[in-house]
Structures are given as structure tokens and as C-alpha cells.
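Not sure how to ask, but would you mind making up any protein sequence you like and the C-alpha cells describing how it folds?
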Amino acid sequence: MTLTQHVRNGWYLGAWSDEIGRTLKQRWITDIPVCFYRLPDQTVTAVEDRCPHRKYPLSLGHLDDDGTLQCDYHGYRFDGQGVCVGVAEQADKPKAALRRFPLVERDDAIWIWPGDPELADEGLLPDTSWLTDPNWTHVHGVVPLKARHLLLLENLLDLTHETFLHPSSIGNAAVAATPIDVTVDGDRVGFSRRMIGIEAPPFYEKSCGLTSPVDRWQDGDFYPPGVFVLNIRVAATGTEEPDGFHMKVLYGMTPGRGNETHDFYALGRDYLIDDQELTRFQHEQQLAVMQEDVDALEAQEIMYATDPGGTAESSIKSDLAALRGRRAVAKMLTREQQAGGTRPRASA
């Protein structure tokens, strides 16, 4: 795997809604510094975090009560649309504007399109209504990852690693031993694994109160370039739908600066939604599993980064979804490059 450039004509999870307020927040996305903040009417906006005067980070400036953003290096001031409205304490009014990014705030998540704004299509976003559905409860956050986002993508599309990397929580021999069915719909890649009459992994014994044998389903969907949703069902063997325990896991795999990634996550369930102790336990387990993944992926990143010649890889049947995901991202990047890349930032 040598692909390290970032697709920009696509939706990425840029922030959780509760991360963004009237304080300026910088977050690098696809090698672009982005400044997030809310206007007085509470709508969220995101601009390139470089003042057009001398490229000083706007996130180091300040936000007035009326929504005017001031660069605190030389005093350039910008209105809520990113247009320069003057320079503090000076008569000059430069013809300058900030690059603003298409955003969608939905279900407590803020999605950003860092590429050509004319191509931003909300219809490409996954269904995340469960994040605000009163019949579900969830936890969410973001974990820093010092590895390229494609490594995280392949980690999620090939869950056989649960057997070996997470045996004390969500993994057991049945995951690696059970084949997957893979589907491709345009750029979207999906997989399904049905484990029937298996031993209950420790996490599901504790959080669902189940004993072996159980039926466990994993249905994953990758929405290129950086969103993955896993639907999980666990039930006593022989239990038919809709009975059983249902969970969802959302990952926003958002490239940051260089080969760093923002590993956004949300873990939801539709049972015992008022059980705060269960919520605490599941959140702790989610973070522990993610830390095991982070450790593995950061070790992988070193190996890829120090192998510029690209030593030949070996693949097997269980890699099919991951390879399809890798191919989907590569195709998106090729289309973007052939179309001339993304539009330049606003300037004057």
C-alpha cells in the first residue's frame, strides 16, 4: 500500500457538535488547517486557518460577539461569510476573503467537504439518525492516530483481526474462522459476517448478559473516502429478529496532517438505554479496543513509512473487503486528479 495522498472531494467527519462553540478550534483535515467556530445564530462555520495577509493561523485570533473573526497578527477582520470587512485600527479595506468549506451538521455530527464545493452532495452521507434517536443511546469521541487513514480503513474492513488483537473483549476464534460476503455499490463497499452458535466473546457476555452459544452478526458499510458504519446483532442462538441486542459503531476516518488521522467514533445500543453503568463499561471497553488498534496501526505505519520500495504484500480471502475499500479510495483519487484536483482557495 503506497497511496498516501488524500481524497478531498468527499465528506469527512470534521467534529462532534459538542466540540464546537464560540471558541476558535483548529483541526487539520486532508493536510488543510481548518478553523471551526459558531456564529451568533449557533450555525457552525469552517474556514481555512490561514489569514490571507501573511498566513497567520486565524484560530489564534479572536471572535467578536457579532461573529466577526479577527486575525491577531495584523488585525484583518472577516465577517460570517469570510469576507474581509477591514483591518483593525486602519483605514484599509482589502479585497480579501477566506476559503469556507461546505458543512452539514446533523445528528450531533459536523461533516466537512474539503474539496470542490460544487460537488458537495449531502445524499452521500450515511444514515446517522440513531445518534439522536430516543430509542438508542450512544457515546462518542475522537482518538488521535499517528498512522495513515487507509490503515484504519483496512483494519475496519477486515475484522478477522479481532480474533488476534482483541481476544479479551470482542474477539474469539469464530471471527477469523467465519467467511464474509462482500458487496460493492458504486464506491461503497459492504460486508456481512454471520456467526451462528458460537462462543460469546467476553464483551458481549458482560454487556448483554449472554452465555454461549450465541449468534453474532457483523454488517459493515464503508462510505468513501472516510466513513465506516458497523451494525452488530448478538442474541442467544435460535433467537429471531427483531429480538436480540443491537449495537452500531460509527468511525470517521479523517486524514489530518501528513500521515496522522482523526479517529472519530460513536458506539450506540438499543437496549438498557438508561443504564449508566453499562454505558460507562461499554465506553471504557470501546476505548480499550481502540487503543489496541492504535498501537497496532502506529506500528504498521512505521513499517510502511520505512519501506519506500513497497515490499510485495500477501493477501487472502478475508482481505477482500479491505482490498475493495482500498481500490474505491484509489479510484476516487484518480477521478479527482483527472478532473484537475480541487478548486483553489478564495483570494483577492
In short: Confidence is low (pLDDT under 50) at residues 344-348. The longest helix spans residues 276-305. The radius of gyration is 22 Å.
